[in-house]
Design goal:
Order of helices and strands: EHEEEHEHEH
Largest sheet: 6 strands, mixed
CATH class: Alpha Beta
Structural class: alpha/beta
Distance between the termini: 12 Å
CATH topology: Rossmann fold
Oligomer: single chain
Number of helices: 4
CATH architecture: 3-Layer(aba) Sandwich
CATH superfamily: Flavodoxin domain
Helix content: 25-40%
Radius of gyration: 14 Å
Length: 152
């Protein structure tokens, strides 16, 4: 299966999970590719975000999107990315968010809900979702469990 792992990462935490997903899937003989959402970090406000070149996800059978939570919502860069990509019709999609605050209701639920909603608007069939709490003492085990679930 050809799988794209599309990651927006502000601090590098979400990107580190993306690289773990790619390695795990490649070890399971999947054709997995990491795509990083690039933005111009010099943007003065979230309404003026300019994305870098957007790679086509058309050749992929499955897409996994990952993004941090920003200000209790989905990171504006991922929101803009999902609004600008091509159709996701016929694609199986999984989504995850990373966050610092310990409770899902402190932005995790709303960010994940928005990500799922934007993907469904593009025609995606949602497979798995997850919230990775970066401050959880069992974070590494939670990440490993989520990655194993993605490969099922």
């Amino acid at each position: 299966m050809k799988i794209a792992i599309v990651i927006y990462s502000y601090t590098g935490n979400t990107f580190s999970i993306g690289t773990k997903i790619v390695r795990f899937l490649q070890n399971k003989n999947h054709d997995a590719h990491l795509i990083r959402v690039n933005v111009n970090d010099d943007q003065p406000s979230k309404t003026e975000i300019q994305l870098g070149e957007i790679d086509s996800i058309a050749p992929f059978d499955k897409v996994i999107f990952g993004s941090p939570v920003r200000a209790f919502s989905l990171a504006p860069a991922m929101t803009k990315y999902l609004q600008q990509i091509e159709s996701l019709n016929g694609k199986t999609v999984s989504c995850f968010v990373t966050k610092q605050l310990p409770f899902a209701w402190t932005g995790g639920n709303s960010a994940l809900s928005k990500m799922v909603s934007l993907c469904k608007e593009k025609g995606a069939e949602i497979d798995r979702t997850g919230i990775i709490n970066w401050s959880n003492k069992n974070r590494e085990q939670l990440i490993e469990q989520f990655i194993r679930e993605l490969a099922e």
